[in-house]
Amino acid sequence: MPAGAITAATPALSKITNAAFSGPFDLPGDSLLAGTNVLAVEIHQAAGAGVDVIFGADLRVTTTNFPPAPPLPIALNEIAASTNAVFWLELMNFGTPKRVSAGATITRFGTTINSYALGNQALPQAAS
Length: 128
Fold this sequence. Notes:
By secondary structure, the protein is mostly beta strands. It has a domain at 74-123. The protein is 0% helix and 18% strand. It has no helices and six strands. The strands form three sheets. The protein has a two-stranded antiparallel sheet. A two-stranded antiparallel sheet has the order 3-6. The N and C termini lie far apart (60 Å). The relative contact order is 0.14.
């Protein structure tokens, strides 16, 4: 690609007649953030090139030296099947006894979106 600002209409500097795999390319771990990351790719052909385009990618992740994730204090244990007439779920408290869920909601996404307020309930601690 040429130096300077690149737009979707910027042509590549050279035409590739026999495409071949190139890489691997290392991505530093600090380039990734906790949560969802996006790998965006844009293909540019040289001016006067044909209309044929090929692209392939292989993303491999190796994680090392990460501390284990802390245990979740509250987790879903069972949930109603989609064919049940009544929606229900069972929460398990793996944290301290009587964890109060004041103001918490559980939201179900699908054809319709439903939110259920948990209210101000005490959740007994799960048996070990």
